[in-house]
Amino acid sequence: MQYTDNITSLKGIGEKTAGLFHKLNITTLYDLITFFPRDYEQFGERIPVSQAAGQEPVTLKLTLTGDYKYRKFASLGVGTITAADESGQLVITYYNAPYLKNTLKRGMSYYAHGKVRTEKNRIQMDQPKLYTEEQYQTLMRFMQPKYALTKGLSAHMVSKAVSMALAGLSFAEYLPEDIRMEYQLSDIGKAYRQIHFPEDYESLILARKRLAFDELFSFFMQLHRQKEITKETPSAFSLLETADTGRLLEALPYKLTKAQMRTWQEIKDDLTGGIVMNRLVQGDVGSGKTILAFLSLLLVAANGCQGAMMAPTEILARQHYEELCHMTEAYHLPVKPVLLTGSVSAAEKKKRCAGIEKGDYNVVIGTSALIQEKVVYQKLVLVITDEQHRFGVRQREAFLGKGEQAHVLVMSATPIPRTLAIILYGDMHLSLVDEKPADRLPVKNCVITRSDHKKAVSFLIKETQAGHQAYVICPMVEENEDMEGVADVISYTAALKKELPEQIRVTYLHGRMRPSEKDRIMEAYLNRNIDVLVSTTVIEVGINVPNATVMMIENAERFGLAQLHQLRGRIGRGAAQSYCIFVDGSGKDSPSERLQVLNKSNDGFYIAEEDLKMRGPGDLFGIRQSGIMNFKVADIYQDSSLLMQVRKLVEDLLMDDPDLTAKEHESIRGWLSLNFGNLVDFRSI
Ligand SMILES: Nc1ncnc2c1ncn2[C@@H]1O[C@H](COP(=O)(O)OP(=O)(O)OP(=O)(O)O)[C@@H](O)[C@H]1O
């Protein structure tokens, strides 16, 4: 039997059953044995009926004391039979199972497994599974796997198929003995057997560790190979540094921070170095990444080529576009920018696309409209994605495909914990903008409960009357009966208007508004025609209004810490002191511990680490939805130290033997070729 054999080679799996397995993406025996259980069931010792009622499933040893009675109520058939042990009796119920009349007979004994409840003083057991003594003894010896099934495919069918595959395959160990010893890894065949049918908890842990190791090992091997490829790809465009970028830097009303200067130098070296750039610029909120993107676009434009920048929201794209237009005009830059977003009319879009194709524009800024098939670039040399992880995998691939080996610059304001950064951006060079402009004062924070609402509003009035602006964030757009106690933008605005003096101008903003309406409001806020903006998290990413100095976040307990930090990043962007008020709306007397993390720190990296610890990686930054965490067993939080160890091991191995040609590494090479197809394609992350 081979890993690559079709599952139909197993006895009892015909075309029809194979079709059901296909629904779970299982075609080969390898797919089958890597279809890991989602949980396990431990069958324990049996207990007496008198102690059985409760939430957990239990096992009872019962003798049937009556006959099976079957009655129909409309379309529901209900079958009951009485049973007892030495401590008491109960009634067993099955639904729509008339045929059990022939099997369940008075006097028979079974081990019954299921949940027991008490109803009107009667003890009831619904649809228990029945086993003979011998069957139950076998079950008790192993933890039983639970699989994520599909209709028509039972747990028993999957377990049986897995057992057959495990028995038929010969698992050749590919890891050299010294590595297995060093990392205390069990044998590969044993690991597969024990992950499906563990003898006990310890064996399961060991199996899991071995399989997580294998997954991470393949991942880093592939990552390393990709890094090598990226490192060596020569760029088809030779760009030269022109005087324009220096001129812009001279003309700006501020001097770049040291971190900005260092990053700009790194980008410049990449762009003019003859090799395709693949760089991630990571900087905390408000650290000044946009100007670095503009300098890069300017360099490309000054070389007669095109650059494009994709932002995750319409508002943000427009903001970047307007800022670039402003700079182009003010400093006479050789830039011809164009905006391409979903809300541009079809006729106008056609016109702009024609201009892009002809080369009338050399900088294109937009949302995902930039990568629609119709857009053809004349000479796209640089692609910049802002807040990359918000884009879907396919979108990013399409964007890259628009240019021929274009330089890639990714800007991220999300401070990503180290382990996660390695997974997400392991193949990229990293620039850290780890310094904020010198004129910034750290945001002052406080966490309050709703009982302090009046005080918070007085503060809002004081700040707005001093000429500053404020944001109030609510989790919901409009009132919802099912979400009592959760603030919504629409009712909150109405209530706030009543609380504030008339001259303070309050407006709301949310994601369900028309794009043109959202733009109009943002524009008005930017131009100081609105004092308080009540909004959902649509303003979370990138919006830059330096005059806004207060943010009040209602129901802060409902947001993740990293997201709250992003929201708070909308203030503290100018020279004035800013304040963030987190309102814990959970109704508890004192605010939650979790929010104190934000109270204590303004450091995005620290907050992201804390968030990761509290929530696990899958919930962070919507990564689960975007399909980035494709590991089946490994968990980058739980296995973070293993992850670091494996990364080091792979680096050392490849340093000594880059092509894995040494005799002792032959088996690793063979195994990797089997696995690469199943791994995360990190180029597309
Ligand atoms: N070196 C600097 N000195 C002073 N102000 C600066 C400096 N660099 C950028 N700025 C200004 O700081 C503000 C924030 O910059 P920018 O919008 O680029 O932040 P960002 O890093 O993109 O943050 P976010 O990810 O939160 O959007 C802008 O108004 C920008 O003009």
UniProtKB/TrEMBL annotation:
Domain Helicase ATP-binding: 270-433
Role description: Plays a critical role in recombination and DNA repair. Helps process Holliday junction intermediates to mature products by catalyzing branch migration. Has replication fork regression activity, unwinds stalled or blocked replication forks to make a HJ that can be resolved. Has a DNA unwinding activity characteristic of a DNA helicase with 3'-5' polarity.
Any Pfam family the entry gives: Helicase_C
SMART domains according to UniProt: DEXDc (SM00487), HELICc (SM00490)
Entry's EC annotation: 5.6.2.4
Gene3D superfamilies linked to this entry: Nucleic acid-binding proteins, P-loop containing nucleotide triphosphate hydrolases
Name listed for the protein in its UniProt record: ATP-dependent DNA helicase RecG
Family: Belongs to the helicase family. RecG subfamily.
One of the record's GO molecular function terms: DNA helicase activity
Claim: Transmembrane helix is one of the keywords in the record: no
Organism encoding this protein: Suilimivivens aceti
CDD domains listed in its UniProt record: DEXHc_RecG, RecG_wedge_OBF
InterPro entries found in the cross-reference section: ATP-dep_DNA_helicase_RecG, DEAD/DEAH_box_helicase_dom, Helicase_ATP-bd, Helicase_C-like, NA-bd_OB-fold, P-loop_NTPase, RecG/Mfd, RecG_dom3_C
Class of the enzyme per the UniProt entry, highest EC level: isomerase
Helicase C-terminal domain boundaries: 452-613
Reactions listed under catalytic activity: Couples ATP hydrolysis with the unwinding of duplex DNA by translocating in the 3'-5' direction; ATP + H2O = ADP + phosphate + H(+)
Keywords: ATP-binding, DNA damage, DNA recombination, DNA repair, DNA-binding, Helicase, Hydrolase, Isomerase, Nucleotide-binding
PANTHER family: ATP-DEPENDENT DNA HELICASE HOMOLOG RECG, CHLOROPLASTIC
